[in-house]
Amino acid sequence: MTEQHATPVHRHEYQVPPYRVDSLELEFSLDEEETLVKSRLHICRNDGINPHEPLHLFGESMELLELSLDGKALRLGDYLLKSDGLSIALVPAQFTLEITTRLQPQLNTQLEGLYKSGGMFCTQCEAEGFRRITYFPDRPDVMSRYTTTVIADKARYPVLLSNGNPVERGDYDDGRHWVRWEDPFPKPSYLFALVAGDLACRRDTYVTTSGREVTLEIYTEHENIDKTAHAMASLKRSMRWDEEAYGLEYDLDIYMIVAVGDFNMGAMENKGLNIFNTQYVLASPDTATDTDFENVEAVIGHEYFHNWTGNRVTCRDWFQLSLKEGLTVFREQQFSAAMGSAAVKRINDVRILRNHQFPEDAGPMAHPVRPDSYIEINNFYTATVYNKGAEVIRMYHTLLGEAGFRRGVDLYFQRHDGQAVTCDDFLAAMADANNVDLSQFSLWYSQAGTPKLRVRDEYDPATQTYTLHVSQSCPPTPGQSEKKPFHLPLTVGLVDTDGKDLPLQLDGESHALDTAHRVLEIREAEQSFRFVNIPKRPRPSLLRGFSAPVELDYPYTAEDLAFLFAHDSDPFNRWEAGQRLMSDLLLEWTAKGIGKLPQPLLKAIQETLAHKALDAAFIAEAITPPTEAYLAEQMQTIDPLGIHASREALRQQLAQGLAKQWLSLYQELASDNTAYRPDGDGAGKRRLKNVALGYLSCLHSESEQTRCLEQFRQATNMTDQLAALALLADTEGEVADVALREFYERWQREPLVVDKWFRVQAMSKRSDALDRVVALIEHPAFELRNPNKVRALIGAFCQANPARFHAPDGQGYRFLADNIIALDGINPQIAARLAAPLSRWRRYDSKRQEQMKLELERILKTQKLSNDVHEIVSKSLAN
Ligand code: TRP
Ligand code: ZN
Predict the structure, then answer these.
(1) Half-sphere exposure of 422 (CA within 13 A, CB side)
(2) Domain termination site, one of 169, 198, 227
(3) Which of 83, 174, 596, 689 has the most CB atoms around it within 10 Å of its CB?
(4) What is the pLDDT of residue 2?
(5) What is the predicted pLDDT for the residue at 76?
(6) What does the pLDDT read at residue 613?
């Protein structure tokens, strides 16, 4: 017998909601055994809707206790109750519906709806969690004004929070108390939030440009409140930046952030009451790395920016998710670039895109930025929607320029403030504000797959002209065999033999523009661009700043790449040239056997190290070989062990070839005794120092191991300590265990540091990494119920340790399938996310394909498999 699984929802089936809820009053009575939720909905039929249209309210996983319409109790027969909601066949044009439901948040392990984390109650309603709290038209185009009363025991839950402003509070004489919150802004149900607990608060104020004072509050468990200073400073910087860059001010009198330890994603932008994974709030130098500090700032920014791009203007339906997520990721990227090194930020963002989104776009789950159908919406919070979505926004910015982009955003808010809209509405605002035709550009929303851009060139010394021939194509993806050409910006520079950018004058133009590079608009399958007054054959610097999310094919020679690596004025392309130089070599070694490091590459790395004008963070990126994930993407049939061996061999030869340089660089940076500050400069230097330490430990000498152990033991901050621990954990001897034991003993009471301890072991290069990971599943600190723990151990091993995960005996695959099955009964959303590495089975050799496929089939045969996992696994096997 086959089980019944949910059927897909299609974008084209969208219908306007027949009824709206103008306002509602919610009352929560929170208790240990059960929670009662009373809801009073003020409902109206929308214009033009047939009076016989039934009212449908979504609702799942709760008990309906009472239901009344305009004060009259409804009985079964008056309404229809099903496992996914309730319908009332005949309702008046305007009425009040009262609903009482009973929940058991203490048993909610899915972390959707109302649940308990540690001792506190909290909610997660995006995308469809509100329907686990009460019966409601839980869809983002129904926007309502909320008044929420929270009642709970005063001793255990002294802090009671919800969206908006607190308007009234009081005590009952049975030890309970209550607080009433009013949110003046109509919002979709996915932005509802509630928190109750014994929490500490860091309070501050912010004065907006127009002079309004806003109270800022960050809530955590008491022991963590001293780790919130960086989050608070980041919040203020975000608020200032949005005023300066977009003219957008905060709109309520209070902005609250609550950190919770059990959370499915990074954070949630609930109106006025953001809920965050502790990982993206808490940061102190001894427990958080420089990267953690950066991530806190980025995620605080992201959620704050949602207040306008997501909350004030929201999505009409979940197919439009990238409307808010792509735009908000882009805004966060701009913000982070402005706060630190723009070049390094761009490098890291492109690395995320290539390591996560490109494989997704080339696999069985490939979908457009605006998907056409889904079975479980939680499976579509993807790198495509978020990161490729952000690249699409960036392309508007590149095509229209900074001022044109801002005109488009201004018009978007002017037209749509307070509305639930579509990606087409955003595109129309961009087009109308700039008087341009963006109809072809809309293909970025509808066509999946990573386009390939093939560029060839010719130089004619007789006429001193240089021509770029550009052609584009896009591989087929599930359900889309033919693709039309995209409209995209190709930013180029032409570099002369001195490394200078040439003035760029296209044939037919009267003079060269006074810019180092220019944006070529690509619209056709094949297009040519002829530059005039080019005295000598230049080297093209193509796709500067990674101007479009495409795969570029240009036949660069190793000499070209070494030259651009030394001279390109565009920092992204300078880094890119070095990466290409190394990846060409590594792919050749993987295919034909490991050889000797070419002298020009060694020299290029050496010169980069010695380059005084470059900052430390950039150098650290430039001298690090491309990731194994990136290399894998370049191969027709992925050879994970071959890639790993080649990359290690390159690191080894660079370590030996430049041993003296690594040592002096390390010593110079390690002797810097200035106090720890998590700023760009300090972080960059630590990064470079730890890259140098990494090369030194490739020498595998006892003295280098001692050096690592010394840094590990003497480090005064988590960045240095963890970097050394990771290197020690890669070594085969006993020192690894000594260091890991010391680290655990010291940090076992800090859950976020224990996550790092799991992650370092999951990512270890040791040959016994899988055995250790399997053993760690039984460790008392590991919890399958905690998503951070799952990501740190199982996620990191399967996604970031390809050489061990893809062990030829298939044990890595079995381990993953076992855990997906175990987790599916607890938290299907997280279980489904874990399945990504198995879904890419077709990219491997036939033996691995067979092994991975068997595990996917085993998962599919599991009784009571969730829709979440079922969707991913069945699509993986089908496509
Ligand atoms: N909107 C959130 C963000 O991008 C994403 C999110 C947080 C989420 N928690 C979730 C999505 C749970 C789905 C389920 O910031
Ligand atoms: Zn978001």
Answers:
(1) 13
(2) 198
(3) 689
(4) 53
(5) 87
(6) 87
